[in-house]
Amino acid sequence: xxxxxxxxxxPLRRWHIPEVVDKFRRAVxxxxxxxxxxxxxxxxxxxxxxxxxxxxxxGDYERVVAKASSVNSEAADEVVAGLADxxxxxxxxxxxxxxxxxxxxxxxxxxxxxxxxxxxxxxAGKPWDEADADVCEAIDFCEYYARQAVVLxxxxxxxxxxxxxxxxxxxxxxxxxxxxxxxxxxxIPTGMTAAALVAGNAVALKPAEQTPAIxxxxxRALRESGLPExxxxxxxxxxxxxxxxxxxxSGVQTIAFTGSKDVGLAIIEQAGRTQxxxxxxxxxxxxxxxxNAMIIDSDADLDQAVPAVAQSAFGFAGQKCSAASRxxxxxxxxxxxxxxxxxxxxxxxxxxxxxxxxxVGPVIDADAHARLTGAVARTTGTVRxxxxxxxxxxxxxxxxAPAIVDGLPPTDRIMTDExxxxxxxxxxxxxxxxxxRRANQTDYALTAGIYSRSPATxxxxxxxxxxxxxxxxxxxxxxxxxxxxxxxxxLSGSGPKxxxxxxxxxxxxxxxxxxxxIRQGFxxxxxx
Length: 528
Ligand code: NAD
What we know:
The chain is an alpha/beta fold. The chain folds into two domains: 39-56 and 64-288 and 493-510, Aldehyde Dehydrogenase, Chain A, domain 1, CATH 3.40.605; 292-472, Aldehyde Dehydrogenase, Chain A, domain 2. Helices cover 36% and strands 20% of the residues. It has 15 helices and 21 strands. Helix 7 (212-223) links the parallel strand 8 and strand 9 (232-234). The longest helix has 26 residues, at 128-153.
């Protein structure tokens, strides 16, 4: 019996407890010495080994973490046909029935929490606390959407006057394709996949090329929790091949995408072109990038604001869609703020995340490394901190030191582009109006935050900041399922908020049923 009201987020590991640290250290060691994992594709319920896609440890890129199958675009027809078949009986089941599978997957992950997080340390380069948080979020998505599905299964509230029975039902749409990023390699694929499945769809999961082994753990969790064979296909492979082929396929009703703006917009455009034989309008749920700003008011408590900015900008090496990449600081406190931010940032250890003291791990790959170091090397601003690689470990890893840059013209890449790494633009502003105006000067509108002790200023910022998630006197990263539903406005997102009460409806079609219940021409003789 699933109680819709009993959702609670999974508590994060408490790293000050020595036994917790020892247990996780053992999981990290086991993962460090493990052989490369073999990850199959799954099509039509069968495990298949085709092609090869290797994932490596970004902190030690000569080490292969997994060898995954690599599915190419020719498989798209077979993938979609198998899912369409399986979807029919899956969608006939009740929401509660399907929700039980999600509850099972949550338990499966909970039992293997350290093992899963340790895999993230090596395949995604996540520091310990970030890896643990990602696994917790995956569990939360399963627990939360399972409960939301029970509510959705009861239908919408509509009026039924005497003599008429009206219902609003939510039914699965058909075949959904889930395309995920590498930066929350378990949580984000889990959120999109769990929502699509529990709403009654069959799903093709296309994980990011960099993290197929972690995404495969979700597939194991669902299959071992009773998901019928055939309802979920797992298709690792290049995004521009199998990903694009599935998006364009005439049998795919829904596309759930989380990733960059450019890819997301291309998917939205492609999905808008009706294919021969396509008898429905495709729906795209897209969550994309951010160029997120924090505002530091002149009365802000800098004891809190400085570490919160550093955490928001440099946690997981700045590789979060929600990360702070611009800070606007009131002129009277500018010098004090930046001096303290530099001093704080100098304490953040850069290195391989297998060590618990590391705060800033590697960036994900060579492209990211080149993009970030290039932006800092070529900036027209003043690099106030970082930019030097002298204290970075000598290891075959893609490490980038956190960088703080000011004196930037508004057109510098560091001010305009989502660089997706530990590079932070800081600027001084004269008043709150210019701070809000500059914060809003971007195509993106994902997260934003303010540190202020003035209720009037906070209220103005909350109303005027153009962002899907606004944070007050706290970090701007780390949203929790069921507490801070997450998703952007502007060119940061198209859809409902993940981890919120509206999300499952994006994967459902609403069907209104109206029945005349007044007996008309009732003929008892014909009943026997
Ligand atoms: P990406 O856009 O490069 O790739 C995302 C996924 O899309 C991958 O699985 C990739 O293989 C696939 N893909 C690539 N080209 C495709 C195509 N033509 N057709 C179909 N699929 C294709 O993004 P990334 O580097 O994996 O992730 C980082 C980006 O994700 C950043 O921009 C970040 O802000 C964003 N992100 C957003 C959120 C959010 O909730 N808004 C969360 C996490 C990450």
